[in-house]
Amino acid sequence: MSVPEKPDIHTYVTLMEEVKLRMAVLEFFGSGKGHALYQPSTVESCCLQVRKILELIAFGSLAANKDIYSQPMRSLLPIGTLVVCSEILRK
């Protein structure tokens, strides 16, 4: 009997599959086998793919580690900041 997959893992895998597709576009343009209508558009398309790949990796990390990221991050903030924030929230 197989262990059911968590939805978070499914989301992570889906995002990483999109990363693979965008990497293929980068390879296609970078190898010279393909291009947009003119050079600046090709460069812009490559830059867009890199940006999207980085975003997908970041979102994948969030999806795979949702439990960690959803924990309160109070230990990361200085105590003075927490006091000021709590005063603002009370108003």
Task: Please provide a written account of the structure.
With 91 residues, the chain is mainly alpha-helical. It has one domain (7-90). It contains four helices and no strands. The protein has helices at 7-30, 39-64, 66-70, 79-90. The longest helix has 26 residues, at 39-64. It is elongated and about 55 Å long.
Q: What features would you highlight for this structure?
A:
91 residues; mainly alpha; 4 helices; 0% strand
Describe the secondary structure blueprint for this structure:
Elements (H helix, E strand, L loop, with lengths): L6 H24 L8 H26 L1 H5 L8 H12 L1
Distance between the termini: 55 Å
Please report the number of helical segments.
Answer: 4
Q: Mean of residue pLDDT?
A: 82
Number of domain modules: 1
Q: Which band does the percent of strand residues land in?
A: under 5%
**What general form does the structure show?**
elongated
Report Rg.
Answer: 21 Å
Based on DSSP secondary structure assignment, what is the total number of beta strands? 0
**Percent of residues in helical segments?**
over 70%
Structural class: mainly alpha
> Which parts are unreliable, with pLDDT below 50 for 5 consecutive residues or more?
none
Q: Could you spell the SSE succession in H and E letters?
A: HHHH
Largest sheet: none
